[in-house]
User: What shape does this take?
Amino acid sequence: MSEHRQTPAPWYQGFQFDDASLTFELLRVMTKALEHGSDIGECLAAARAIGHGAPDQQTLRANWHKEWRALAERIEAKAMGCLARGHTVSARDAYFRANEYYRSADFYLHDNPADPAIMELWEGAHRCFEAARQLAEPPFEAVLIPYEGTTLPGYFCPAFANGRPAPTLVVMTGFDGTAEELYLEYALDAVRRGYNCLAFEGPGQGSVIRRQGLVFRHDWEAVVTPAIDHLLTRAEVDAGRIALMGVSMGGYLAPRAAAFEHRLAALVANGGVFDVFALDTQGSGMSREALLQAVREQPGEIDKGVRAAMARSQTAYWGVTNGMWVFGAATPSEAIARKAPFTLAEVAAGISCPTLVIDSEAEQFFAGQPRQLFDALTCPRTLLTFRRGEGAELHCQSAGRLLGNQEIFDWLDETLGG
Assistant: This one.
């Protein structure tokens, strides 16, 4: 007699919103409280106001923007008042919180990239982060990395005040994150453990898409190699111990770069992404070849089906609208086509450095892909899986940052020699 196994309830069920996307984004903000980048009570108060009397997805998105923006403006004003009275620690913490709240307020606005609110919120976030950076302890530096006739923005956080050489973690975000988030999520933990940290943004990300209009490219080695070149000009960097970590869709971008950039001593894919295009093939129920053919021959039908899915799902709505923007596409079908080259199938074997591939049992975006990447590797490799019930089982250990970073940095310590 076969054992009956009950299907687990959705991971977000019973929390603040009965919606996977809004719940995950709320947890994403709340997790920053670990580094004084948010406050749990402020977040829950905003969430309650967002959900109160919101009968449909469009109203929820409008409320999301309204409430996070109001909170950001209130906390920024509080930071200014603290600074004016000489309370620098209070001002710094409030500026960090306001930065994160401005970032969150922008999240669902990307259906209209021309919306002036996008740049208003971005400038607010950057203004607050820069004000916090000026007050930060330990101090860290805003940097500009030369890149194809322009520059890429980032932050360099030294391990030691005296500038002596140390191992260095280069950390990149993915589909929608920012370098400022990476500072709060990883850089401070890196410095505590004796690592320099360079957090930076490339095309399609953060201020690069907003201020420069540069969209994602699949050949991410062209983005990472200039960052490594920059690091090797710095006396603080031990050239033999540079590690690269990609977060979220960065779990594709970092391995892609590592297949061609061989000055890396270690690689972390958090979580592993083997094929970005597979998200669309899974959603359509088609093979790769059939979907590409349909996009070429029947783009109107594909667009119609995608827009129907967007009306049913907040996650789909956000993923499609943000994807069209960051991939530089005018229609959903065009965005799908532009993701097709984002696969590691032909390059994963070129990765030579020790690699940590991270999986999560409640992974809601790239389920199954970490194992695909792990199986394709020929270098020294480790698969780390965060289990249900541990608290770090969501995408990129959201809401489980302490456990996530403990595992990641312990592996780096052991791989890079302490």
About this structure: The mean pLDDT is 95. The longest strand covers residues 237-247. The first helix runs from residue 20 to 31.
